[in-house]
Amino acid sequence: MSCVLQNLSLPCIRTSEREGHSVNLAGAFFHEFVLAKHLNSILMIMMNILLTNDDGIYAPGLAALYTHLAPDHSVTVIAPEREQSAVGHGITLNEPLRAHKVVIPDTFEGYAVSGTPADCIKIGVLEILKTKPDLVISGINPGANVGVNINYSGTVAAAKEATMYGILAIAVSIHSRQVESYDAAAAFAVRLAQDVYTHGLPAGTFLNVNIPNRPLADIAGVQISRLDMDFFPEYIDKRIDPRDRIYYWQGCDSLPQGKSIEIDGSALCKNFISITPIKCDQTDYDVLAKMKKGKVIQQHKN
Q1: 199 located within any domain
Q2: How many CA atoms lie within 13 A of 242 on its CB side?
Q3: How far apart are CA 64 and CA 75, in angstroms?
Q4: Looking at residue 211, which CATH number applies to its domain?
Q5: Rounded mean pLDDT of 83-109?
Q6: Within-domain flag for 205
Q7: What are phi and psi of 251, to 5 degrees?
Q8: What angle do CA 185, 48, 27 make, to 5 degrees?
Q9: How confident is the model at residue 21 (pLDDT cuts 50, 70, 90)?
């Protein structure tokens, strides 16, 4: 992560030490990031960009990204034909996938896919696109994708799928279901995308970005953060329909705010933009090494 955002020459918020490793946290005030005049001098490199989401091809967050990217880049939209929130990394195997062109008046022409966000990446890379894109951006999702909930997110899954194909990828979400304007978040995503493309990311790693739903002046800065591995308080709402049949709604409480801003959800609740690098490789290498030495097996035998 030391490469990302360094070329912007913006003030660093802090340095963190965790588990004996020093981590440089590149950060900046959001209004400075978007409005600073010196950003205009950064060389704009044209990219081939694939946009997708889990809210469907008609979602306003997707349109905002396209509007901000299209003037300077080659942008293709391949997104689900309907909302696919919380489908995780599922793919379609038991029925055919269909993709058809859709025209969003005065915005873009894209491909609507009958499957999941991960399906959109697969069919885009393997069939629709002539060449592999330079970058995939998934979003902008209304509602945060932080902590353990990234495992359920179709937005995050699309970025992960792209990363597994060797493509640079970013997932972008806003901390609200009621978003008045996506423009500021889209502007931030565009600059971050340029920086990621210029400097790269480690193989198998993508960025999960969550942005407060606040005016520019109220955003505290950018925080490079880690995932919160605690479950949010969950509940099952049991109800009875007019025919006396039981049904359920799943739900969870809002994000916890009392933790360190080095944790993604807490940083977001304290009005920081949270950027978390996510690895696709889920291997536990510490346990792997112990198992190869027979230590784990011996411990269980004893």
Answers
A1: yes
A2: 0
A3: 12
A4: 3.40.1210.10
A5: 94
A6: yes
A7: -160, 170
A8: 35
A9: very low
